[in-house]
Design goal:
CATH superfamily of one domain in chain B: P-loop containing nucleotide triphosphate hydrolases
Strand content of chain A: under 5%
Largest sheet of chain B: 6 strands, mixed
Oligomer: heterotrimer
Structural class of chain B: alpha/beta
Number of domains of chain A: 1
CATH architecture of one domain in chain B: 3-Layer(aba) Sandwich
Low-confidence stretches of chain A: 288-293
Number of helices of chain A: 12
CATH class of one domain in chain B: Alpha Beta
Largest interface: A-C, 46 and 50 residues
Shape of chain A: elongated
Largest sheet of chain A: none
Strand content of chain B: 15-25%
Structural class of chain A: mainly alpha
Bound molecules: adenosine-5'-diphosphate, magnesium ion
Number of strands of chain A: 0
Order of helices and strands of chain B: EEEHEEEHEHHHHHEHEHEEHH
Number of strands of chain B: 11
Number of helices of chain B: 11
Shape of chain B: globular
Helix content of chain B: 25-40%
CATH class of chain A: Mainly Alpha
Distance between the termini of chain A: 27 Å
């Protein structure tokens, strides 16, 4: 071949590109990717995309139906619903981000250490995850928020506290398979401390599947956060959190359908996007599926 | 020779998505005899067997002729095939561990064949089943009737399978590696039972195997398959006159008790055998 | 003998595991209770009580003792069936909960019937048509149910089917008109109204139940569909399916008699677990539909910070979950011949 050599990408980037190509080829997961891109762009450029200030009330202009300069209408205080949704994307993204950085490390640390160390420590840790897993996530989050007091931050903490056990389970299972590998044994023979082995060798190996699992769980996180907001235990007014917007809109829903309809559609789209993406990822990473075509 | 049970001419099979045919131009006829099909793993033996029963949903099957008694197998509708399978043609699968339904009692599974093809009462089917279990030399049919597959041994499982497949008295039975999954100690026993039943009832048998020396004792004729093609057809008695180098390789690759101690021959495989029909 | 011995050991081991899990559960609820911002003493004595009375109740509740002693006391109370009194109603919490539970169970039972009735056939259809359009359709349909914020769907459904079309009853378990007409015997309105022969109340109850139960059922059907599909795919790829075809069974007969027959036990366990998860949806849907059940009891007490009520509700959910897990395990052992 005389063609110029294709620039080589480093391994992980190449893998990421392959997965991305696979996801974009399937309509459902492509939809998921598009929605999430829209979410990120909206959150990033909220000040430019929003047509109004999300907090400014206009009592002369309350409960306006969609149209007339307000794309999605106005709420009971005359605020522009479209602009509130746009700003709400930031809150949603914040929740996703913060929950991930709470849940990922906790799950990874608990899972890898108990998988690597085994024995009594493992038994105790797995009992604890069992206890957490014996609740539906929303109920346990509810209880934590009740204990911590209702606020957006506490809702995020509560969700984080309830969402780590499945991650820990996964990391533990992965660790168990790596533990016996030759290079781990070699490192141990060279006198590397368990801490060093876990941090340097095992955690990086578990990271990809943990990240995928986090994506898969994100739909549940979004729904739980919205549910907490709806029950008045998450983000507090006047924050434009979508669940909280539905809660306030509820009183007017029979006459002013747009108050609840649009925030709900936003939640639905984002959680559907994560579910479709997760579904696609599962397929993309299933070796049997990759070989077929 | 009397009128053949089965005539196959130029059978070609391609699995969907596969680049080449899994079976290419296979032809043979079968009377009331026992025909062996021998070849290494992946040579297309099972594919031929399944094509005869028309159980290859994910493949395209073509042939110049595929005549089973009075039936043109290629032209039959699925509805008509339902009356053929189990009743007139059946197949013994390889491993009873997987080919028996793990959560149904074996007696129930055997009787299902009978109930499917004859309108009889459950009690009659059970009597028939017990008779058949006895015929495959199961000593305590009443007890075995109520066992689950995981509670019986592999040899016993394969005898149950034989009972199930011969119960409706078919004219042709395909045995797809019926003993490969069994302990060496019971292989002969199972084959002898199958052989006896097939002879007594005048059933045509196609015995698929990768073990030429095992098959030659239980068959009248042997087809040797290689890469989807029949490379040679031999009379079981005159096996030693095999012409094709592949067949000779197969014969030589078998250890013989009491034979000279030499390293086992390694099978030779040449690409040209895939293309040129032998002779 | 040795098999029995092993069985006994595994049974004991399991009992030990359950005991530890329950203990952990109690610890968790205790911690949550302690962390709650509401002042339990103030909640009992009221805002105007004198410092002396406050101090007296404070000591009575043992709040001056070390935390571990407080936990032991809580443990003792729970084990003797004392879950404390609700600040709001003044009645024992457990009595309150038993009073609201039937409403939730009525809802959840209908929902699971709908969820299983929808999810199982859809899962089978998807598996049988793997990677063809029915499979994709089912996948999108069930992911949709899994993705919808149920409190929102509830409102939209109320707007459309109640306010708009008038096909169903609105909030509550029955029309305002009938409230108090049926004597409370079992707590299950459908049963009570039938016992007392008030068929119009029964009709009204069905009319109010159908919408929230359908929504809950739809959301739980996603999980049931997915599991059914994957169980079926496992079976469809098995060799005994070929055996059945060779015997002369049609594809449909093979699928129903053999593949589906073999996943029935697994399905029962899945449905039992899904029933537990309904509690989560019930908390939200009960709020939307003003359904006087467990979920509403929990949320209303959360908001006013009624510690005893919240702790007990959380504890009960945990216990229900553990019990359902145990039950599904047990069903498996009882009905799958391979485990004997
Ligand atoms: N379901 C299938 N889909 C695609 N290819 C198949 C399938 N089953 C078998 N094959 C291919 O067909 C060829 C013949 O297989 P088979 O008939 O099972 O061989 P044998 O029974 O002689 O071991 C093999 O190359 C195999 O890979
Ligand atoms: Mg084979």
């Amino acid at each position: 071949m005389t063609a110029a050599p294709v620039p080589r990408l480093p391994g992980p980037l190449l893998a990421a590109r392959n997965i991305l190509t696979f996801l974009l080829r399937v309509p459902t997961s492509a939809f998921g990717l598009v929605v999430l891109t829209i979410l990120i762009v909206t959150a990033g450029f909220a000040p430019w995309i929003a047509t109004h200030d999300p907090y400014v009330q206009d009592l002369n202009n309350v409960l306006q139906a969609p149209g007339n300069g307000h794309l999605f209408g106005t709420d009971e205080l005359g605020r522009d619903i479209f602009s509130r949704l746009v700003w709400g994307a930031r809150i949603t993204l914040t929740i996703i981000f913060l929950v991930s950085i709470v849940v990922g490390p906790i799950g990874l640390i608990v899972g890898t250490t108990s998988g690597y160390l085994g024995g009594r420590f493992d038994t105790v840790m797995m009992r604890i995850t069992d206890i957490f897993l014996s609740f539906p996530s929303l109920i346990l989050s509810l209880a934590f928020v009740a204990a911590l007091g209702p606020s957006l931050n506490n809702a995020i903490i509560a969700i984080g506290l309830t969402a780590w056990p499945p991650i820990a389970r996964l990391a533990r299972a992965e660790t168990m398979t790596f533990r016996k590998a030759d290079y781990i044994a070699a490192a141990r023979l060279q006198g590397a401390s368990p801490l060093r082995i876990i941090v340097k060798s095992i955690m990086p190996m578990c990271l990809p599947s943990v990240l995928i699992r986090l994506t898969l769980n994100m739909a549940t996180v979004i729904l739980t956060a919205a549910g907490l907001g709806f029950l008045g235990l998450g983000a507090q007014p006047p924050l434009p959190e979508w669940g909280a917007m539905i809660a306030t809109g509820r009183r007017y829903m029979i006459d002013s359908w747009w108050l609840v309809t649009f925030p709900g559609l936003a939640i639905l789209c984002v959680s559907l996007a994560f579910n479709l993406l997760g579904d696609g990822l599962r397929d993309a990473l299933d070796p049997k599926q990759m070989n077929r075509r | 020779m009397e009128k053949p049970i089965l005539e196959v001419q130029n059978l070609c099979i391609r699995y969907n998505g596969a680049p080449v045919d899994a079976v290419r131009g296979v032809s043979f006829t079968l009377g009331r005899e026992r025909l062996g099909i021998v070849g290494e793993s992946g040579s297309g033996k099972s594919t031929v067997g399944r094509a005869l029963l028309r159980l290859l949903p994910g493949a395209r099957v073509t042939a110049d002729r595929m005549q089973f008694e009075d039936l043109d197998l290629l032209g039959l509708s699925e509805r008509q095939m339902l009356k053929v399978r189990g009743r007139r043609m059946s197949m013994i699968l390889q491993d009873p561990k997987f080919s028996l339904n793990p959560i149904q009692r074996v007696g129930h599974q055997v009787a299902e064949t009978f109930l499917r093809h004859f309108s009889v009462s459950k009690a009659e089917a059970k009597t028939k089943t017990l008779e058949m279990l006895a015929a495959v030399k199961i000593r305590d049919p009443e007890r075995v009737h109520d066992l689950y597959p995981h509670e019986i041994s592999g040899g016993m499982g394969q005898r149950v399978m034989i009972a199930m497949m011969l119960l409706a008295d078919p004219d042709l039975v395909i045995a797809d590696e019926p003993t490969s999954a069994l302990d060496v100690t019971v292989r002969l026993q199972v084959l002898t039972i199958l052989d006896g039943l097939v002879r007594d009832r005048g059933i045509g048998l196609i015995m698929i195997s990768h073990d030429l020396n095992l098959v030659r004792n239980f068959c009248d004729r042997v087809l040797i398959m290689y890469a989807g093609r029949v490379v040679e057809t031999l009379d079981a008695r005159s096996m030693d006159q095999a012409q094709h180098p592949y067949t000779r390789g197969l014969l030589a690759a078998q250890p013989r008790i009491g034979g000279p101690r030499q390293p086992l021959a390694v099978l030779d495989r040449r690409p040209e055998w895939k293309e040129e029909p032998a002779q | 003998m040795s098999i029995n011995h092993l069985r006994l050991r595994s049974a004991l081991g399991q009992a030990g595991t359950i005991a530890v899990t329950l203990l952990g559960l109690l610890m968790l609820t205790f911690i949550i209770g302690r962390m709650m911002p509401a002042d339990p003493v103030r909640a009992i004595v009221g805002e105007e009580a004198s410092p002396e009375i406050y101090q007296q109740v404070y000591l009575q509740l043992g709040l001056d003792r070390p935390v571990w002693e407080q936990f032991l006391r809580y443990l003792g109370d729970v084990l003797t069936g004392d879950f404390g009194t609700s600040i709001r109603t003044g009645k024992p919490v457990i009595e309150d909960i038993l009073h609201v539970m039937p409403a939730t169970m009525e809802l959840a039972t209908f929902a699971i019937l709908i969820g299983a009735g929808l999810g199982i056939p859809l899962g089978v259809t998807a598996a049988v048509n793997k990677d063809r359009w029915p499979d994709h359709l089912v996948r999108v349909f069930s992911l949709f149910g899994h993705s919808m914020p149920i409190f929102w769907t509830g409102m939209i459904a109320l707007i459309v089917f109640y306010a708009g079309l008038g096909w169903v009853g609105g909030s509550g378990r029955m029309s305002q008109f009938y409230i108090g007409m049926v004597p409370d015997r079992t707590g299950f309105l459908l049963i009570d109204s039938l016992i007392s022969g008030q068929f119009d109340v029964f009709a009204s109850a069905i009319n109010h139940l159908i919408l929230p139960a359908s929504l809950l059922g739809y959301s739980s059907s996603a999980y049931i569909t997915r599991m059914t599909r994957s169980f079926m795919l496992d079976q469809l790829g098995q060799e005994y399916m070929t055996t059945a075809r060779v015997k002369g069974l049609s594809r449909g007969q093979t699928i129903w008699r053999h593949a589906f027959g073999n996943i029935r036990v697994q399905l029962v366990t899945i449905v039992a677990l899904a029933y537990g998860s309904l509690l989560e949806g019930a908390v939200l849907i009960e709020t939307v539909f003003a359904w006087p059940g467990f979920g509403q009891y929990l949320t209303s007490n959360l908001i006013i910070g009624d510690m005893n009520a919240v702790m007990t509700c959380v504890l009960i959910v945990g216990v229900i979950f553990i019990a359902l897990n145990l039950l599904s395990d047990l069903l498996y052992r009882l009905f799958d011949p391979r485990t004997k």
